[in-house]
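Record 1 of the preview.
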Amino acid sequence: MEDKEFSDFKMERIECPKCGATWLNGQHYWKTGRVGDTKALSNLVCGVAPGPGCINEDHKEGHVYGEADTWQKRAQFINRWYEER
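->
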């Protein structure tokens, strides 16, 4: 019998027990399937309901990542869009 070569392909799926956020092979993905941003996840999800159980390595209690998406930035976008109508 001939030796077969096997790839080192692996699939690792990790889900946050607190919010259900999903990482595939270390990359966060939003529920929509789009590639995620763990700093935006921290601002939009992890920081909304503080407490134990969050597995997002970028989440720091009380910290807001200014360069990432926030609820304030989303509200400003909606307000500008509404005013232009």
